[in-house]
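hey can u run this one w/ adenosine-5'-diphosphate bound, need the structure tokens asap thx
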Amino acid sequence: MLQPMTETTLAAARTPIKVAILGAGRGGTALLDLLHLIPSIEIVGITDRNPDAPGILRAKNLRIAVSARMEDLVCNHGVNVIMDVTGDPAVERFVHIHKQPITEVLSGSAARLLWELVRHEADLRAELFHAEKLAGIGSFAAGLAHDINNPLQLIMGLAENLIEEPDVKVVREQARDIIEAVRRTSAICRDLTQYARKASVHDDSMVSLNNRLDEALKIARYAVSFHDIMVQRDYAEVAEVRGSADEVLHMFVNLITNAVQAMEQEGGMLRLATNTSPGAVTVTIADTGCGIAPDILGQIFEPFFTTKEPGKGTGLGLYNVKTIVTKMQGTINVESRVDHGTTITITFPRATENRM
Ligand SMILES: Nc1ncnc2c1ncn2[C@@H]1O[C@H](COP(=O)(O)OP(=O)(O)O)[C@@H](O)[C@H]1O
Ligand SMILES: [Mg+2]
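ok here u go:
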């Protein structure tokens, strides 16, 4: 009997709490950085007397509205909570006089307490991120040993020949081969040390999805065996999103690793695709593996949910993927049929170059 196709989609929550931030210094910037990651919070705007305050620049990069006049935010009917981190008693008085009756105000040590809590949570999340990546790197050992051993064997053979080789021309040629083999080994080490470093979570630049997919493919090859797995790539000419290159790479390594692990038994086809439309950029990672049973489909994004044996899975891969996609204001859709395969489609809003 043909297994039914099941599907799940993660998208932003519906009715968010609308927040306005007064003050774009250190406190305001930290609030902005953390609150914009939370789907149930919408930052209506931020304001500061200083147009070059760090939080103002950050807001422009995140495409969050910046108000030149504080009263526009304070009097705004759509704001549920005003967070005043200016520390300025004049601002506090102004807010209490001019705010809408239904708007609540968090200021002084209450605002500080809140950002201490949120920052603590963000630190934990960053640690979890890194821990998951390092756990994954543990499984690289076998692939890595193999890939480093090959050029080492070659170097050994060439060096042995050199001892007996009288012809200087041949000696030079073999020396060049040795250098080439050493270069290959160094490239492997460079890829992995770059991947292993802590992702720079505040990076915000144009990231090429095609390039990140290719890079992720290289790294995933150390983690899982691609034996009997064909790879098909269908890329749009240019597919760019705004975000952190490290995080996008980490996300793709996780998704490709999952896809290949799902095809471990019988081999299959891994398809990587990017597409663009006027408003969106999509990435598709599809496998022809074991599929996901409908009764667990709703749980795969939960932290520590895994069906893999210890050592193979941490259950944090998709949880981290979800965190990154949400941060980038994207959505992720999973379509799966048991014994036929899984297709993961991530849709990002189309990035624009027009940073202010
Ligand atoms: N492409 C896939 N095919 C089949 N099952 C998958 C796929 N991707 C994820 N899963 C399921 O979702 C679970 C959670 O995935 P993940 O969060 O990456 O954790 P882990 O891979 O460490 O188990 C997996 O254990 C597996 O059961
Ligand atoms: Mg995984």
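The pocket of magnesium ion (ligand 2) is lined by residues 254, 257-258, 313, 317 (CB under 6 Å). anyway lmk if its weird
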